[in-house]
Design brief:
The complex is a heterodimer of chains A (about 350) and B (about 300). The N and C termini of chain A lie far apart (about 60 Å). Chain A is of the alpha/beta class and about 350 residues long. Chain A is built from twelve helices and 13 strands. Chain A has helices spanning about 1-20, 40-45, 50-55, 75-90, 110-120, 135-140, 170-185, 200-215, 230-245, 260-265, 295-305, 335-350; strands at about 30-35, 60-65, 95-100, 125-130, 150, 165-170, 190-195, 220-225, 250, 270-275, 285-290, 315, 325-330. Chain A folds into two domains: about 15-40 and about 60-170 and about 295-315, Response regulator (Rossmann fold), CATH 3.40.50; about 170-290 and about 325-350, Response regulator (Rossmann fold). In chain A, strand 4 (about 125-130), helix 6 (about 135-140) and strand 5 (about 150) form a beta-alpha-beta unit. Chain B has about 300 residues and is an all-alpha fold. Chain B has a domain at about 25-230. In chain B, about 70% of the residues lie in helices and about 0% in strands. Chain B is built from twelve helices and no strands. Chain B is globular. The chains are: A alpha/beta (about 350), B mainly alpha (about 300). At the A-B interface, helix 1, strand 8, helix 9 and helix 10 of A face helix 1, helix 4, helix 11 and helix 12 of B.
């Protein structure tokens, strides 16, 4: 038993070392990071490592805490929120806006603990950036009536006065990507690598299919949901399967698609990204990415909170309000007609002349 | 459209990707087989794979030398194995719990190093497919068996080597006796501690290669938690394969082939929900396990720390 206690001490020492050398906030000045090690409750560490919060000047800065399912640099869902927070901070100034985050909170129980911790530390806004955190927020929010909560992607505020909901109309960018994919495909087969058939992944895939079919009904869209947000190896094999089945244009959504992009590049097959700009992964084959710009929604929430409304509303990021932007890869030589088509499609979705019918 | 499934393209596709998908399982599960045959359950495989994957990726990215990447992954895995061996053999720690500890350490450490040293997902040029004159040109067979990269071949070569070591050498006899009856082995002058150190470090080394096979041979990227449970499935495959290398090979191939079959089922538009398709490899594995496992017995000393009686 003594030996076992020794071992436990050893492991605790490991964990301590880990948290002690947690990443320094070099990217953005006032960002402080809760360690990603899942064995500890990350949120409780955040305030002790956040000197900025205690040295705040007389005018209180607006403080946001966010819990994310994957890493802030996943080139996908979590990164889109992190980048948006950084942009809001650049806009408002580091002295007026502070944010902390807990990333890799794939265990919902840990996330719930972090959310409760952040709420009790008096953050103005606590965001659960993932639809899996909804039931936790529903339970926690009534205990902190002075704190504003937000979660996404969803439209459900549970009828609570201090919960905001946000979602992305990802079918819109999916549709634009689909129109372009149909235009660029020569084999008339395109492939989609999806995670789990739900939420904004399903919206994106359905929008993509609608875009392809509207442009060229003869094109076959093969869809593959691999049942995981993290299995890079299976995503890669899914891409290989699509290519063997004749696809010459691929797309996919969620953070595990980095495996699929690699296979697309290897076989020189075109790729359309979503959530974040994925050009850097394979500059020769990425045509365009739909990028979420949550800062518009964040700004709206912040001004509502500052004027006393703590929740009860839901927001949707779409092409028209700038919450979604199609970012083209400047290194990919997109034919002029295709570019024009993309632009008219985007304009059509914005002004409502193109409606996307989802199944 | 189920008839679409029965075509040569699909068959070749399933076999070729099944063979690729099985590669990391093979390295990790063969390594784990050695450990378990000597009586040590190592649940830290996933953590060793993650650190190996990162080490290989980082070294390959910065030096451009893929073999140096593999060597680093082996070294990192071996060091993790050494620590695991110390904790389980010298400190007599509960093997399951300490394995989980090492998994969490590998998960957190690989993530931390990734954040510190890379900061974003990048790609590297990994091991190319090997072209074998003659063999690679055979229609079908060539695409399935002879157009893979060197780490894929290594994984399959490992199976007969492991079988030979375990069953035909004195070392293998010592490993098995330490796993079945450590007291008897000890009384015959076999050092239980030394054998277990050897198998756990070997297991760690192979897990390191398993990680490298993902990050610089099959996928050529590194992402946090990229193994996503592969290491735990590898441990399960050892039970599935009844602690025999050939059984592990069978299990790894079955699981991987069914996984690639379900990918094709969806691509070919067979009308079953994706959730059901995704479950197939797991359900089938459990069914086969139920049907076969009652006939085999685990090494008697598995998970039991050895303490010499005075």
């Amino acid at each position: 038993m003594k030996k076992f206690a020794w071992f436990v001490t050893l492991m605790l020492a490991f964990v301590l070392v880990l948290s002690a050398c947690g990443p320094a906030p070099t990217e953005a000045p006032a960002v402080t990071e809760a360690p990603a090690e899942p064995t500890e409750a990350p949120a409780t560490e955040a305030p002790t490592e956040a000197p900025a919060a205690t040295e705040a000047p007389a005018a209180e800065p607006f403080r946001v805490a966010v819990v994310m399912p994957s890493a802030i640099n996943d080139l996908a869902f979590s990164q889109s929120m992190y980048d948006a927070l950084v942009r809001v901070q650049e806009e408002m100034g580091a002295e007026n806006f502070e944010f902390v985050y807990s990333e890799n909170m794939f265990v919902v129980d840990d996330a719930a603990a972090a959310i409760r911790d952040y709420a009790s530390q008096g953050f103005n806004l606590v965001i659960g950036h993932g639809s899996q955190y909804g039931s936790s927020l529903q339970e926690i929010a009534p205990d902190f009536p002075e704190t504003s909560f937000a979660w996404g992607t969803t439209v459900d505020t549970f009828g609570l006065p201090n919960v905001f909901a946000y979602e992305a109309a990802s079918q819109q960018g999916g549709y634009v990507n689909g129109v372009l994919a149909a235009t660029l495909s020569e084999s008339n087969v395109v492939g989609v690598v999806g995670p789990i058939e739900t939420g904004d992944a399903k919206l994106y895939v359905d929008g993509f299919k609608a875009g392809v079919t509207a442009t060229n009904p003869d094109i076959q869209v093969n869809v593959n949901y691999i049942g995981s947000f993290s299995d890079v190896a299976l995503a890669s094999e899914a891409a290989t399967t699509h290519i063997s089945a004749g696809a010459d244009v691929l797309t996919g959504t969620a953070q595990m698609v980095v495996g699929a992009i690699g296979k697309a590049e290897e076989s020189n097959v075109l790729w359309f990204g979503t959530q974040s700009n994925q050009t850097s992964l394979a500059p020769s084959i990425v045509v365009a990415s739909q990028v979420y710009h949550w800062e518009g929604i964040l700004n709206e929430m912040i001004s509502l909170i500052q004027s006393g409304t703590l929740g009860g509303q839901s927001f949707a990021a779409d092409l028209a309000n700038g919450g979604e932007v199609i970012e083209f890869n400047p290194d990919y030589a997109l034919p002029e007609e295709a570019m024009t088509l993309a632009e008219t499609t985007i304009a059509g979705i914005k002004d409502g002349s193109i409606t996307i019918t989802l199944p | 459209m189920i008839s679409d499934l029965f075509s040569v393209t699909v068959l070749i596709g399933i076999l070729a990707s099944g063979i690729r998908l099985a590669t990391p399982y093979l390295y990790a599960a063969i390594g784990e087989t050695f450990g378990q045959r000597s009586g040590v359950l190592n649940l830290g495989v996933e953590g060793q794979m993650l650190l190996g994957a990162f080490a290989a990726f980082y070294v390959a990215l910065t030096t451009g030398n893929l073999w140096l990447g593999v060597l680093t992954a082996m070294f990192v895995g071996a060091v993790m194995g050494l620590a695991m061996a110390y904790v389980t053999v010298n400190l007599h720690a509960e093997q399951g719990i300490s394995g989980i500890g090492f998994f969490l350490f590998g998960l957190g450490m690989s993530d931390l190093l990734f954040q510190k040293l890379l900061g974003t997902v990048e790609t590297v040029k990994g091991f190319p497919k090997i072209y074998i004159a003659g063999l690679s040109d055979i229609p079908g067979i060539g695409e399935i068996f002879f157009s893979q990269n060197v780490l894929v071949y290594g994984a399959y070569l490992l199976v007969p080597i492991a079988w030979f070591i375990l069953n035909k050498t004195t070392l293998g006899l010592k490993i098995r006796s330490v796993g079945e009856n450590p007291d008897a082995a000890d009384s015959l002058g076999v050092s239980v501690a030394r054998i277990r150190y050897f198998t756990i470090i070997l297991g760690g080394t192979l897990s390191g290669i398993a990680g490298a096979s993902l990050s610089i041979a099959l996928l050529n990227v590194f992402q946090q938690n990229m193994t996503s449970g592969l290491g735990f499935i590898a441990v399960a495959l050892v039970y599935f394969g009844a602690w025999r290398p050939a059984g592990v090979l069978g299990g790894a191939l079955l699981f991987s082939m069914v996984n690639s079959l379900q990918l094709w089922i969806q691509v070919k538009g067979v009308e079953i929900p994706s959730d059901i398709a995704v479950m197939m490899p797991y359900v089938l594995t459990i069914l086969v396990l139920v049907a076969t496992v009652s006939r085999v017995r685990a090494p008697s000393a598995l998970t039991k720390p050895f303490e010499r009686e005075n």
